[in-house]
Each structure stands twice: as structure tokens, then as C-alpha cells.
């Protein structure tokens, strides 16, 4: 039985939280260390639980329960099927959703020593093509129906993965291809790699060692008390690295992992119902998903004790009625999921405060440095760029040149024991006297949309792949609550007259859902600033002031000229969707998803409908509606009282 390789263990860091400089906090440098940490093993800890508690539930998948013995045996079979073609250190793309099949695959690849590369259950064709052209991927695992064309027609090796339960694949294969692959391999010692947004228009991959993940898992178990008998969510989208914290936290604790049905990400009511029905004790969720829950009474009769929230700036603190301990977490993929946390409880004096909480203090083995442009620490209380070092750091990108630019040595006059490199996050923060951090925004062009880091340049490059597009510029518009949405400003190629909706359809195969703009504006040119560069603030202001061009399916209805035949439900739905998407041109004849609706927007729409109309509708009812008029008709039907005796 082959263990996954690990990076050399780093020395434990015997430094407590904060840095005692012996000086006044006004002049103390913005340097802080988490408690000491020592890397451990991940796969070996799971295998230990499989030996000690073979009959304990490892995965509870609706009506199916997989014990630790079942999971261990299934992973052994898959590892054996792959062993002849997949070697230690090989990258393996995984196109599976949150399911027992995904869990078995992750364990099997760790056992082989292969590098798990989650691509999402339905990755865009062109996005996958770019990945396979750049990276040396040994094979892709998934349902043959959702694999990229090249792998659909390649050699398939059937895998005995579970095909029942939540989000289960209809079939599962390892797909190999004889075509020339990319040349970039994962660095030695990698356990997994994840894709992040790339400024070249192509996603970049970052690799993480087992030792780095183990430190985050050790913190999670110690902080939340996750143990046998508990139930841990598997909720985060599998293209994003936090799902690895969920998955391995459960399996290294002797707890049960519970995969989430897909509709939990669309509707906060469905999410909390699932928490209750699944008897979850521990959960991880994206900030935009949890925010609606904090604006209404906290659900009762939950067993949930700990909720880790991250991916976007939290805009308020949980109220006094929140019974779970909420951890506001921060961490880029380059620093292994979680770097800092701030813990909040309903009994705190600040509970219910409508101000953003800090992103917290350093996790064990983490060093935080807030620097100026030269990489030197600023004084506490001053703003600067956050740089991170310690056990949490990823091995680097699969592009060595990019690794050298972003993972840099500390300034020569900065004494940091056992720290030989710092990751430049590009995040603007302020360190408080106690070593905690306040998040203030980004320093570069990278933005957060629905909890996912997006580089507008990548979105622009996706548009510019289209021969009908000469140039594209993407800006971010934010509403009064700070929620962001992308708007693409497109200058058409000579002689071309592209429709906005056609352009949006074309880029969907390049980009993840969160990176697809909600609107496209066809423009003749771009305003320039004094340096001759595109004036993005001016462009965003133009978009805010004018009605963006929507993807059309039918003629729009103008609320200003609405007749008496427009119902109150139609007015509510249309006004809410227009406001959420920032697109005044949307009409009742438009389909929600075609108009740019995403899972996060759907959750906010459903919450508004319930608050204003007193009717709770489900996300599938919204998604199945042919257009907004049909959805409004359903709302009318639900809130019309039945006649007596009916």
C-alpha cells in the first residue's frame, strides 16, 4: 500500500500569537505568528480510523451509508485499477460532484501518491482544453458524458465508483488520451492541486503538500472538536479548495461526511433544512450563502455546533440567537484554505453588530506580515499588503516563473525564524494591536465575486478569443451592500455586429459560473485616463448610469409603462431581478439564467420574494420556469387564497 508523498517536515515554530516586541503597540511592526505547529499525516490518519472503527459511518449519502471499512475497500479497488497507468506524482483531473464517488476517488489517489486536481462536475470545454494543453494530466476521472471531447473519444478504463446517492455519476471511468499533453507537472510532494484565476486568460494551478493540509486539519479538529459521532458537511463546490478541508477533516476525525444535494447552494432555506435533516454538527459554507441567514431569525432545532464561513468579506456579525459558533475564515489557495480566523458566538458583547468583523488571527504555524511596497513591515494600525509564510504555504504554482514572482524571500532585514519565503496575497489589510487583521480590499485588479477570486483580465481574454471581439474590458459594479457583479464592455471587430447574448454564451465554456458577467455593453471605444490607460472607474460609471445591453430572448416589458395587467408579483420579481443584476433592460420574457442569474443571485431573489410576499418558493421552481413571467405566475398562484371548500 503506497502512501502519498509528503514534503519534508518543517521545524515546529515555537511562537505564540502576536509578536512581543517590547515596544509601544503604535510603533510595533505588523508581524504576527500563530501558535507552534508540527505537520502530521493525512492519509495515514484516515487509515488508522478505518482500522480502529471499521463499522463507523464514513459517508452518509441520503439513504446510503458507507462505513470506514467500505470506503477503505472501495478506494483500494480504484487505486488498484489505476496503478498500472497512474504513477506517484501524476496529475489526475477529477470531474465529479460532491458525492461518495468523489470521496472514494480522493482517497484512492492519495493512496497511489497521485495529485488530485478537482475540475468540477461540468467544466467548460475550452477551459479544460486550456488546462490539458498546459498541464501534464495523466487521465481525467468522471462520467463519460461530461468529459471533454478529446477524452470522450479516448481510452476508457471503467472504475468501481459508487453510482448511487447525492450527485452520483451515472457511470465513472478514467479517460486516457494518446494526444500530446502539456509539460507542467506538480512539484514533488504534492497531495492536490487546484485551479485559480490567471491573468493570461488561462487558469493557473497551485500545488499543496500533504504536510501543509495536515496543519490546517489539525487546527480544525482542535478548534471545532470534530470527533467520532459528529457529521461534517461536504458543501463547497469541488472546483474550489475548501471542499478538501471538509472532506479530509471528517475522514481524519472518525466523523461522518455528508455530501450536500445541489439545490442547497441556491436557497438558504433549503440549506438550513438540509443542516437539520442531515443532523449536521459541523459545516463549512461560503459567505454569500450564509449572509441571508443572518438577516432573519436563526433556525431552531439545529445540531450545528460549528460553522466555518469564508470566501468573501463578512459584512455583519451573527446575532444573539445564533446557536452555532461561527468562524470568519480567510485564506487563499496558495496558503492552504485557511490562514486566519475570527471566532464569534451569540453570547459575545458584539453579537448582532452590523459592522464587518475582522478576519482574525493567525492559525498554528502561520506567520503574517503586513508590508509596504518594498516588503518591509508597516507599523500596526497602518494599511499594507498581507504576506503569509509558514507551514501553510503551498509548494507553488505549476509555473515556476509565476512561483518565483509570488513566493518571495522575506526582506533581508526582517528576522523571521524558519521562514524562507512569503506569499504575496495582493490583499490590503490592517493589523490591530492584538495581531488580528481587518480586510480592506484588493491591491491589484483581482476581485471577489460570490466568494471566488476572479482576475478581470482572464474574463477579458475569454471574450477576446471570439473573432467578433476586438477588445474587451471588464469592470466590477457593487450594490449598496457591497455585492459585486461583472460587466463586460466590448468593442466589436471591424464589420462585426455581435449580440450581447451570443457573446455571453460563447464565454460560458471558458469561465466558471462566478466569472461570467451579468451584462455586456457593446461600445465604440473606451475612456482613457491621464496616462493613456483605460479609465476603468469612468467605464464602470457609464455602465451604472446606462442600461446595459442584456441577452435578449423576447421583447422586454418596461415597468414604467406597465399596464394594469401587470400583477404585483410580476412587479416584485422583475424589479428585484433588475436590481440584483443591475440590468434595467431585463423583461418578464427573459429566462433567469440566460439573463445572468447565478446561484447566489437566486438565493437573494428567493429571500426577497419570501420577505415581501410571504411566500417561500424553491430554487428548482425558479430554474424550471421558462421566464420571469412564469415564475411570477407561480408566485401569484401560491399567495392567492383558496376559496372555501376548495
What does this structure look like?
Strands 1, 18, 19, 21, 22 and 23 form a 6-stranded antiparallel beta sheet that branches. A 5-stranded mixed beta sheet has the order 5-4-6-8-7, with helices on one face. The termini are far apart. The model is unreliable at 1-23, 547-558, 560-564 and 642-646 (pLDDT under 50). The protein is an alpha+beta fold.
Strand content: 15-25%
Strands, total number: 28
* Biggest sheet overview: 6 strands, antiparallel
Report helical residue fraction.
25-40%
Distance between the termini: 66 Å
> Which structural class is indicated by helix and strand composition?
alpha+beta
Low-confidence stretches: 1-23, 547-558, 560-564, 642-646
Global geometry: globular
Report the mean per-residue pLDDT as an integer.
85
By DSSP (H or I, 4+ residues per run), the number of helices equals 17
Task: Give Rg in angstroms.
Answer: 25 Å
Describe this structure in a few short sentences:
The chain is α+β, with helices and mostly antiparallel strands. 27% of the residues lie in helices and 22% in strands. The protein is globular, with a radius of gyration of 25 Å.
What are the salient characteristics of this protein?
single chain, 646 residues, six-stranded antiparallel β-sheet, 17 helices, 28 strands, 22% strand, disordered N terminus
Element layout with pairings:
Elements: E1 31-33, H1 43-52, E2 57-61, E3 64-67, H2 68-82, E4 91-95, H3 100-112, E5 115-118, H4 125-134, E6 137-142, H5 149-152, E7 155-158, E8 173-176, E9 190-196, E10 204-209, H6 210-224, E11 231-234, H7 242-251, E12 256-259, H8 268-277, E13 282-286, H9 287-294, E14 306-310, E15 325-330, E16 340-344, E17 361-362, E18 366-371, E19 383-390, E20 396-397, H10 400-406, E21 407-408, E22 422-431, E23 437-442, E24 447-449, E25 452-454, H11 456-464, E26 469-478, E27 484-492, H12 500-507, E28 519-522, H13 536-545, H14 568-581, H15 599-613, H16 619-624, H17 628-639
Helix pairs in contact: 1-2, 2-3, 14-15, 14-17
